[in-house]
């Protein structure tokens, strides 16, 4: 187990502050150049589309952690309202526009349904924005942590990265097949940088500047089997942050809840890789991505690279965003 002195030494090595200017809020997404975007699009050969998002619904992986809940989906207008609106709306509703609309229901075949969703932005398939995690009172690029208030993140909010798309070359690293695991990686064996090198070599794929890496651990497949979103698992060891930095990776996503291992590899810290990636490197983390079908296809055709399209929602000042990423081969 490493200590905080070692953590701070690594943090200094991987820190990208100032690399793209003092005002930068994009971090490693800067590595996705127009050439990179065009090259990624050229990876589409068969028109095979893989949706990597999970359901946004009440059966999601949240619940065990009190500060997050599964999405709550509510109908605000449904078929049952049509008769009520036609019969009572024109008199009962105290708003002229609503009255007019209700009157419309009485003598017009048009009907509509509306709904809303209430959810933590971190509940299901998502990007962590750079403002999601910090330490020593500073965010990525030295922005003050106090700039995230109840009004939202003034700096490094998810809306700041919208201009990047986000689309680039995606590369899947399949730890489940590499370890010859049944469905998922058993807990207690963090994925090391050396093992990432082994997987890259075994798959015959390259990883390079501007790529987004997808780490297949099988966690999502197990969740679909057991419905338990809180079980321990093996994820990336905190030292993988340095491995990502050396290769100029643009972002990393996994099929589990935190990308990194459930057990911190640094004494006295929680989620050291989050701190290094989000705060020091400016590298976004994707969580709860469903990589099961994509991993099966990659194993079948031996092609582990694809065009990845994963734009966040432009939620102003948000520290994360739900997404429905797609991979196209
Ligand atoms: C925290 O970092 C607290 O959560 P997440 O795993 O959603 O990034």
Describe the structure in your own words.
With 329 residues, the chain is of the alpha+beta class. The chain folds into two domains: 4-66 and 121-328, Glucose Oxidase, domain 1; 72-118, no CATH class. Helix content is 29%, strand content 16%. It contains ten helices and 13 strands. The protein has helices spanning 4-14, 34-41, 79-92, 96-106, 175-178, 193-203, 219-226, 240-246, 272-281, 292-301; strands at 49-51, 72-77, 114-118, 126-128, 148-149, 152-153, 167-174, 212-216, 251-254, 284-287, 305-309, 320-322, 326-328. The strands form three sheets. The protein has a nine-stranded mixed β-sheet, sandwiched between helices. The model has no long low-confidence stretch (mean pLDDT 95). Acetylphosphate binds next to loops.
Can you tag this structure with a few keywords?
329 residues, alpha+beta, Glucose Oxidase, domain 1, nine-stranded mixed beta sheet, two-stranded antiparallel sheet, 10 helices, binds acetylphosphate
The CATH class name of the largest domain reads Alpha Beta
The largest sheet, given as strand count, sense and whether it forms a barrel, is: 9 strands, mixed
CATH architecture of the largest domain: 3-Layer(bba) Sandwich
CATH H-level homologous superfamily name of the largest domain: Putative cyclase
Number of strands: 13
Number of helical regions? 10
Overall mean pLDDT stands at 95
| Global geometry | globular
Structurally, how many domains make up the residues? 2
Secondary-structure-derived class: alpha+beta
Sketch the topology as an H/E string, one letter per element. HHEEHHEEEEEHHEHHEHEHEEE
Which fold name fills CATH's third level, the topology of the largest domain?
A: Glucose Oxidase, domain 1
**Which molecules are bound in this entry?**
acetylphosphate
